[in-house]
UniProtKB/TrEMBL annotation:
It comes from the Bacteria. HAMAP family: Meth_synth. This is 5-methyltetrahydropteroyltriglutamate--homocysteine methyltransferase. Its cofactor is Zn(2+). It comes from Metabacillus niabensis. L-homocysteine binds at residues 432-434, 485, 600. Belongs to the vitamin-B12 independent methionine synthase family. Binds 1 zinc ion per subunit. It is an enzyme of class 2 (transferase). L-methionine binds at residues 432-434, 485, 600. Its EC number is 2.1.1.14. One of its GO terms (biological process) is methylation. Catalyzes the transfer of a methyl group from 5-methyltetrahydrofolate to homocysteine resulting in methionine formation.
Length: 755
């Protein structure tokens, strides 16, 4: 009989209880005892929910107080020197110190978990002494067993993925680190078996990335050691996010189960399975429901697919599950009552995805019928026919994209025109867009949202902020000004609210890092823009000054990468729809006299595919969408863009191909590396490498900024260089912002005369 399983469940809770509990504890408004009690309740309620839904194999240990990679590292004593305690134990506060830093101790780095927007804490393996500290999985397994009678499936990050996601060691050290980890994993598994665990899920998502010889060898070594030393418990090697590049190796490993993603990568895992077969003594954990998106699945199609699989594998050897942990989707659609019902009806968040798994499984076990699946799918079919998904002029535009210009006259010619038009000084100074979103700004917005402040009063308040900051910018002596983005909560949500075909959920939160959650907009229909989105504020700002004010937009690639995107048409089509909407806004700004326009692509790099072979197609589509959005302007309009990362050796050609007149890039976090990318690539357009770090309230000194300019000018043409901070100043305080910008402008002035 086919059974159901889950890979991981969101931690944050239906109403972000998890986040609130964490923040209460961090701000010392909750004792450790209360915290543990509260967290236990949240954890158990999540398990109970899965149990009530009838999921056969429920994951244990996926719940975390911060991050599951950190949990694994801590369990094996992989703790950076600076956080070690004298008694060798790691108290809760010390655990959080690693993630968040504390006085005098810099937090461990965090970085994106594969191609998701979840950030994990990067284990630092310099001078560590791996040993098994507390086996948290046994504790959690027992808890679920005793409290709820659940015989769960403990989940652990596998040793190969753990090492591949860590830093601070050489290749030779990697081998010995692995050797020392193997017996520790074995100890964990053995104790779990002792507690009664029958299944253990070992997450090895690294196996979906491009093949490395070293990993092929490690797989053999690790998993045969596990097989020799752990008996009577079924180990599942779990992959997700894409198809595996190690299929042949996987099927020959001595494990009981293999977990594969059958949703992403256009059927690649199925093809592998057909080509190389699947061993009949093993269990297949089939990821069939998309764990990365929020749409209901067409269950009749899923049923057919599973049927086909089960003909090959045998129903007794199959578990149905999501394609990856449900950590990457919001908790439940239940709380989205404010959404129009036809939209809400096609959504499935974590809870509803588990219902889909349960329903499908029940049809195989004949508790439910095919009819139930057909009924389920009806809303999806009818939504496909809805006006939202059939906006004729948009669909026509997408078919006829060649009618829309996507390139401009040469950058050399544009440069000349721009020089004559603006007569900017050498090393022009500017900022990235946002100014401090103070408590007051947020308070006024909330009041307006609640209806306590009229549209007019809110607008007036925003105008007063714009005015204040135009004056401040003039006093500081910046050359190119911005309106400050006070009307925006977030650079993507703001456009999500204005665009047709995009919905904002009330509670569709997803964990991004630690207690920080994001609420991606939902692109459900054809996207277009009915009215101007940014013209009013920008034109108002420009009316107050003779200096140029930059228009400020978010680019199509970033909007797509930070949203949940409809899956009934291609992602590229959706991206081009968004590009056309942004294009119309660019044109509207231009028509109203705003002729310096910045289109931010903060998330371009984030969307890079996991596999090399897909990179080029992604970058080509991204560059095209950006150019589609920005190329219809007149030659004398200057297009800017901004990116918040410095590591782009591998994408510098694409960045150049965007053909933006000016780009600003974050640099403070790795100045040296960035400079080398430019040494090799001759970049001939305007460029501003952030000259100070905006992530800290510290006011930089003139010397530091001067030094940063100097280093940049060693490789970049001084005639093309702009002086700006690293990123937007939204999260900073007002006083420190003004102080820092004054220093920046002064540094630029002093430097100018030296050139
Ligand atoms: N214009 C945006 C701002 O200044 C850019 C934000 C970003 O790059 N993340 O806030
Ligand atoms: Zn940025």
């Amino acid at each position: 009989m086919i059974k159901s399983s889950n890979i991981g469940y969101p931690r944050i809770g239906e109403n972000r209880e998890w986040k609130k509990t964490l923040e209460l504890f961090w701000s010392e408004q909750m004792s450790e005892e209360e915290f543990e009690k509260e967290m236990k309740q949240i954890r158990l309620s999540h398990l109970k929910k899965q149990q009530d839904k009838g999921i056969d194999l429920i994951p244990i240990g996926d719940f975390s107080y911060y991050d599951h990679v950190l949990d694994t590292a801590v369990m094996f004593n992989l703790i950076p020197e600076r956080f070690k305690t004298t008694n060798g134990k790691l108290a809760l506060v010390n655990y959080f110190e690693i993630a968040r830093g504390s006085k005098g101790k810099v937090a461990s780095e965090m970085t994106k978990w594969f191609n998701t927007n979840y950030h994990y804490i990067v284990p630092e393996l310099t001078k560590v002494e791996p040993k098994l500290m507390e086996n948290r999985l046994v504790h959690l397994f027992n808890e679920a067993k005793e409290e709820l009678g659940i015989y769960g499936k403990p989940v652990i990050v596998g040793p190969i993925t753990l090492l591949s996601c860590s830093k601070g060691f050489t290749n030779e050290q990697r081998a010995s680190l692995l050797q020392s980890l193997i017996p520790l994993y074995i100890e964990v598994f053995t104790e779990l078996r002792g507690a009664g665990a029958e299944w253990i899920q070992i997450d090895e998502p690294i196996l979906v990335k491009d093949v490395k010889e070293e990993i092929v060898n490690e797989l053999q070594l690790v998993y045969s050691a596990f097989a020799q030393n752990v008996q009577d418990v079924n180990l599942i090697i779990q992959t997700y996010f894409e198809s595996t590049e190690y299929y042949k190796e996987l099927i020959n490993l001595p494990v009981a189960g293999i977990g594969l993603d059958f949703v992403h990568d256009a059927g690649a895992n199925l093809k592998l399975l057909e080509k190389y077969g699947f061993p009949n003594e093993k269990y297949l954990f089939a990821g069939i429901i998309d764990g990365r998106n929020i749409w209901k699945s067409k269950l009749v199609d899923k049923f057919d697919f599973v049927k086909e699989l089960s003909n090959k594998i045998g129903e007794n050897r199959m578990f149905l599950q999501p394609s990856c942990s449900l950590l990457h989707v919001p908790v439940t659609v239940k709380n989205e009552q404010q959404l129009e019902s036809q939209i809400r009806d096609v959504l499935a968040f974590a809870d509803e995805k588990l219902d889909e798994i349960a329903l499908l499984t029940h049809v195989f076990t004949e508790k439910q019928q095919i009819d139930d699946l057909e009924n389920y799918d009806k809303v999806i079919h009818s939504f496909k026919e809805s006006a939202y998904r059939n906006v004729e002029h948009i669909q026509e535009a997408i078919i006829n994209l060649e009618h829309y210009s996507s390139s401009r006259i040469s950058v050399e010619k544009r440069k000349q025109i721009h020089e004559e038009k603006w007569k900017l000084p050498l090393l022009p100074t500017t900022t990235i867009g946002s100014f401090p979103q103070t408590k007051e700004v947020r308070k006024q917005r909330l009041k307006w949202r609640k209806g306590e402040l009229s549209d007019k009063d809110y607008e007036q308040y925003i105008q007063s902020e714009i005015k204040k900051w135009i004056t401040i910018q003039e006093e500081i002596g910046l050359d190119v000004l911005v309106h400050g983005e006070f009307e925006r909560t977030d650079m993507v949500e703001f456009f999500g609210e204005k665009l047709e075909g995009v919905a904002i959920t009330k509670n569709g939160w997803v964990q991004s890092y630690g207690s920080r959650c994001v609420k991606p907009p939902v692109i459900f229909g054809d996207v277009y823009c009915k009215q101007n989105m940014t013209v009013k504020e920008t034109v108002y700002a420009q009316s107050l000054t003779d200096k140029p004010v930059k228009g400020m937009l978010t680019g199509p690639v970033t909007i797509i990468n930070w949203s949940f995107v409809r899956d009934d048409i291609s992602r590229t089509d959706v991206m081009n729809q968004v590009a056309l909407a942004i294009r119309s806004e660019v044109e509207a700004l231009e028509k109203h006299g705003i002729t310096m326009i910045q289109v931010d692509e903060a998330a371009l790099r984030e969307g890079l595919p996991l596999k090399q072979e897909k990179t080029e197609a992604y970058l080509n589509a991204s560059v095209y969408a950006f150019k589609l959005a920005t190329s219809s302007v007149k030659p004398d309009t200057q297009v800017h863009t901004h990116m918040c990362y410095s590591n782009f050796d591998d994408i510098i050609h694409a960045i150049d191909a965007l053909d933006a007149d000016v780009i600003s890039i974050e640099t403070s976090r790795s100045h040296g590396e960035l400079i080398t990318s430019f040494e090799e690539h001759h970049y001939n357009k305007g460029i501003g490498l952030g000259v100070y770090d905006i992530h800290s309230p510290r006011v930089p000194t003139i010397e530091e900024i001067t030094q940063n300019i100097k280093r940049a000018l060693e490789v970049l043409d001084y005639r093309a260089f702009w002086v700006n901070p690293d990123c937007g100043l939204k999260t900073r305080g007002e006083a420190e912002t003004v102080a820092a910008l004054k220093v920046m402008v002064e540094a630029a002035h002093q430097y100018r005369v030296k050139i």
